[in-house]
Specification:
- By secondary structure, the chain is mainly alpha-helical.
- It has a domain of 89 residues.
- It is built from 9 helices and 2 strands; from the N terminus they run H-H-H-H-H-H-H-H-E-E-H.
- It has a two-stranded antiparallel ribbon.
- Strand 1 and strand 2 form a beta hairpin.
- The longest helix has 37 residues.
- The protein starts with a helix and ends with a helix.
- About 14% of the residues have low confidence.
Length: 155
């Protein structure tokens, strides 16, 4: 599928928010790509969400055929999933920003955790670490696949 077509799909969809994507992932600007290009080329494979209204990982977990076909979850939804009646889930705000309960104290380079229950905070960190590990393993496997494709192409 043509990237220009996919970019147009994203730009027309309320499920892709370029400003939100850039704010959530500051590394996008350093890549000299538009948020749409970054999400299409890398972001979805990294488990990144295109907006607060669409959770890429949830969509992939709910619909394993999308993962098996190595399809971008939002592009799949826009092209097929919507008309098939597939559900989308918003991003879980609790998992969105782990630093939301930390107050950085610049004066002495220390930080303070609010009165939030620390065991709940630790559970959240553990969940995010497990999800990060899962995504890194997925990324590593994808890198291996690409390496094999490059080697095959050279033959």
């Amino acid at each position: 599928m043509d990237e220009r077509y996919q970019i147009q799909l994203l730009m027309e969809s309320p499920l892709f928010d370029a400003e939100w994507y850039k704010n959530q992932h500051p590394d996008v600007e350093s890549k000299k790509l538009t948020p749409e290009q970054h999400y299409l080329r890398y972001g979805w494979r990294m488990g990144r969400n295109p907006s607060v209204s669409f959770c890429s990982v949830s969509y992939q977990e709910q619909y394993p055929d999308v993962v098996q076909n190595n399809e971008n979850p939002l592009i799949h939804y826009l092209n097929f999933g919507r008309s098939e009646g597939r559900e989308v889930k918003p991003v879980d705000h609790k998992k969105l920003n782990i630093r939301s309960d930390i107050d950085l104290n610049k004066g002495n380079n220390s930080f303070q955790v609010s009165n939030r229950d620390l065991s709940q905070s630790n559970d959240l960190v553990l969940m995010q670490l497990k999800e990060t590990q899962r995504l890194l393993e997925k990324y590593f496997l994808r890198c291996q696949e690409l390496e094999y494709q490059i080697m095959d192409a050279k033959r």
